[in-house]
Amino acid sequence: MLVTSVRPAVSNRDWPRPPACLPAERLDDPPEGARVAVAGLVILRQRPGTAKGVIFVTLEDETGIVNVVIWRKIYEQFRRAVISGRLLRVTGRMQKADAVIHVIAEEIEDISGMLDVLVRGAATTG
User: Fold this and answer.
1) What residues contact residue 75 under an 8 Å CB cut-off, 6+ apart?
2) Is 41 within 8 Å of 10 (Cβ atoms)?
3) 61 CB contacts (<8 Å, ≥6 apart)?
4) Mean pLDDT highest for which of 17-21, 81-85, 122-126?
5) pLDDT, tens digit, for every residue of 35-81?
6) Can you tell me the distance from the alpha carbon of 57 to that of 43, in angstroms, rounded to the nearest whole number?
7) Could you say which of 5, 23, 89, 120 would form a disulfide bridge with 63 (CB–CB 3.0 to 4.6 Å)?
8) SS3 of 64, please?
9) Which helix (H) or strand (E) element contains residue 74?
10) 8 A C-beta contact, residue 61 and residue 48
């Protein structure tokens, strides 16, 4: 089982918003099955032994958290980003069930390089 948790201190005012990404607080807006892009810091990776190869990732942006489901086929395609990415952009389909919202990953991009923008912004304002 793979479980990691990292929770860096982040300032909302300098958060680097990747283009065309939906903030976590707006995940209620798109309908079930809509294709969306989200981005955030990886705060949890979980690969339960009973999940048949499914990986669950929790991302956090300046407005909240996003639950991402990564099926084995997608994991194999984007393995490096899933394992080592600290800041991810995920494109996928919305799944809503009993007030729980998930993004079912179709594409995963490691955008950890954007963290440099965040760090530089925090250094100049702090």
Assistant:
1) 53, 55, 82
2) yes
3) 15, 21, 23, 24, 38, 39, 40, 41
4) 81-85
5) 999 999 999 999 988 878 899 999 999 999 999 999 999 999 999 99
6) 8
7) 23
8) strand
9) helix 72-77
10) no
DSSP 50: G
5: amino acid identity, one letter: S
Q: Record the tokens describing residue 109, joined without a space.
A: 């991009």
Cβ–Cβ < 8 Å for 75, 82: yes
Task: Give the pairing type, strands 64-70 and 100-110.
Answer: parallel
Beta strands in 1-126 (DSSP E): 3-5, 35-46, 55-61, 64-70, 87-97, 100-110
The answer to whether 70 touches 108, Cβ cutoff 8 Å, is yes
Distance of CA 47 to the CA centre of its chain: 15
Per-residue pLDDT at 13 exceeds 60: no
Please list, in sequence order, all residues whose beta carbon lies within 8 angstroms of the beta carbon of residue 120, skipping any fewer than 6 positions away: none
Q: What is the pTM of this model?
A: 0.80
